[in-house]
Task: inverse folding
């Protein structure tokens, strides 16, 4: 876990790498994953500029991330389940607007947004 992270109550982080200044809500579970730092100075650019409604960068309350890579400037909505199910581990390719499976690992692309309660 790197410097400047804000982590909510009852959050469990196991066998994972958490980058600089990550924002993680309460009741989140992160296992066997990596979550990289938001670039705070590029926050407006990451979400389309000042005229577009922005999603907060970070991981929302109650989210589960298992066996995934969450790139920079991403938003994971509350209650989302970011993990590749066993039957999809061999299906390389896109699984959503901002997500791809490669070699059995679910990857949330840079500046990606995963909606609340989303799951593969």
Result:
């Amino acid at each position: 876990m790197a410097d400047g992270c804000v982590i909510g109550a009852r959050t469990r982080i196991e066998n994972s790498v958490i980058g600089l200044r990550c924002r993680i809500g309460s009741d989140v579970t992160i296992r066997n994953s990596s979550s990289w730092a938001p670039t705070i100075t590029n926050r407006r650019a990451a979400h389309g500029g000042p005229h577009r409604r922005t999603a907060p960068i970070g991981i929302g309350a109650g989210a589960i991330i298992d066996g995934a890579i969450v790139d920079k400037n991403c938003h994971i909505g509350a209650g989302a389940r970011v993990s590749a199910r066993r039957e999809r581990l061999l299906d390389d390719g896109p699984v959503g607007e901002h997500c791809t499976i490669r070699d059995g690992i679910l990857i949330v692309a840079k500046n990606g947004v995963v909606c609340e309660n989303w799951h593969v």
